[in-house]
Amino acid sequence: MRVPRPPTAPPDGAKTATISYRVPFYDTDAMRVVHHARYVHYLELARIEYLDLHDRPYREYVAEGLHFAVTGLEVRYQQAARYDDRLQVTCWLAWLKRVSLAIGYVVRRDGELLATATTEHALVSDDGKLVAIPPARHALLAAALAP
Question: Which of 7, 10, 30, 137 could form a disulfide with 14 if both were Cys (CB 3.0 to 4.6 A apart)?
Answer without folding.
Answer: 10
